[in-house]
Write a structure and sequence with these properties.
mainly alpha; 2 domains; about 120 residues; elongated
Amino acid sequence: MKNILLGFRRWLGVNPGRLIKIPLIFIKIAAKLGDFLKIGPINSTAYNMLLQPNIADKKDFIDFTSIIPRNLQQGFATEPLTVQSIWHARLYFLKPIIKIVLGLFIWKLLYRYYSWNSTNYQK
C-alpha cells in the first residue's frame, strides 16, 4: 500500500509527505462513518476490499481478456498527467467541506424564508 501511495504522489508531483500507520480499528470506524455520511471514498466496501488479498495469476487474466497488464510505473509512464489531475488531487478533500457549507447555506436560506413568511402572516 505504501508503494502505491508513494507512486501516485510521485506521478502527481506532490511531495511524498509523512506516512502514518493507523490501527485497523480506527480505519473500520472511519469506514462506518463513511457509510453513514456518504461524502467520500472511505466506506465499508473499500475497507473490506483492502483486507482481501488482491493478487491473481497474470496468465489467467491474459487468457480471459487478451489484455496484457502493466505494472503501476508502466501505467504512469503511458498516461500523461493533466492539469485537471493535479487540481483534483490537491482539492479532493475540500469536496466534503464544500457539501457541508453549501447544505448549511441552503438550510439558512430556507429557515430565513419560512421564518420571514410566518412573521408576515401573523400581522
